[in-house]
Write a structure and sequence with these properties.
single chain, Rossmann fold, L-2-Hydroxyisocaproate Dehydrogenase, Chain A, domain 2, 9 helices, 6-stranded parallel beta sheet, alpha/beta, 3-stranded antiparallel beta sheet
């Protein structure tokens, strides 16, 4: 491991550059290394970001080859095709799987943590861990961290509360089969379902809004990038400081809640070594069945390209 806090980003399109900007402003990296299949693009982005160095915590930014990232503490993979308004995340699988498999081969033996943000993140996490040979705790994705943030933001709007005061989680696939854990949502220790003014009929509509939020953004501007950049930077900052935060990241599951042979999001203790411990939240019968369905959706997607 490098002594300095060094982070690599592979893929400098809309998402990769938003991650880079958020990482620099967070102060998570003393060195930020960029790579893209289009070398001029990576070099141009590195130059542009470096020229703004007076306005973020001190960091060196430069474009490199993937091999030059092997001494970093974390590598973010944002390479691949973005979705269109008519595509689900799983529709992107075949093309992006080929791209990430090539990267996985180059990163065999890597000692840091790989954070995948390319969609569909869950299937790609599983395949990347298998191809690279890296342990499951060190191949993760932002998973449903963004979905969880969207849920909290929408709940905050509905209840006229700051999103920071709302504790609620989305688990499962980062995609159409994701599961909102309504039974465990609370505000200051008060269960959401007992909160004055909350009505059960709100749940289906809000879950749908969270699930389709990305499609609505893509329909208007062509890509989602700023929110995922902020999410990724927050994940990296806490991870590299070994804060051991509980986050809904995706990793290969090895038995939690009976799940095997699939990568999906559950609450995890995240530290310097990645997603170190998977937690088992209390689920009601409906949520447990929905999570099992989400796992089957992801297994089927992976089997379709095996």
């Amino acid at each position: 491991m490098a002594e300095r806090s060094s982070i690599g980003i592979i893929g400098t399109g809309w998402v990769g550059t938003s991650v880079a900007m958020s990482v620099l402003h967070s102060g998570a990296a003393q060195e930020l290394l960029l790579h893209d299949a289009r070398p001029d693009l990576a070099e141009g982005e590195a130059m542009d970001l470096a020229q703004g160095s007076a306005f973020y915590p001190s960091a060196v930014v430069r474009a490199v080859e993937i091999e030059d990232m092997r001494s970093t503490r974390a590598i973010v993979i944002a390479a691949g095709k973005n979705g269109s308004p008519t595509q689900t995340r799983l529709d992107l699988l075949k093309e992006n799987l080929a791209i990430l498999r090539g990267i996985a081969v180059q990163l065999r033996g890597y000692q840091g943590v790989v954070v995948i943000v390319t969609n569909p993140v869950d299937v790609l996490v599983y395949d990347f861990a298998e191809v690279s040979g890296l342990p499951p705790e060190r191949v993760i994705s932002t998973g449903t961290m963004l979905d969880t943030a969207r849920l909290r933001q929408m709940l905050g709007q509905q209840l006229a509360l700051d999103a920071h005061s709302i504790h609620a989680q989305v688990v499962g696939e980062h995609g159409d089969s994701e599961v909102v854990l309504w039974s465990g949502a609370d505000i200051g220790g008060v269960p959401l379902r007992q909160w004055s003014g909350w009505q059960a009929e709100y749940e289906a509509g809000m879950a749908h809004a969270v699930r389709t939020a990305a499609y609505e953004v893509i329909r208007r501007k062509g890509s989602t990038n700023h929110a995922i950049g902020l999410v990724t930077a927050s994940l990296l900052a806490g991870m590299l400081r070994d804060e051991r935060r509980v986050l809904t990241v995706s990793r290969v599951q090895n038995g939690a809640l009976g799940l095997q042979g699939v990568a999906l999001s559950l609450p995890c203790i995240v530290g310097a070594g990645g997603a170190l411990q998977v937690l088992e939240p209390a689920l009601d019968a409906v949520e447990r069945a929905a999570l099992a369905h989400s796992a089957e959706v992801l297994r089927a997607a992976r089997a379709s390209v095996a």
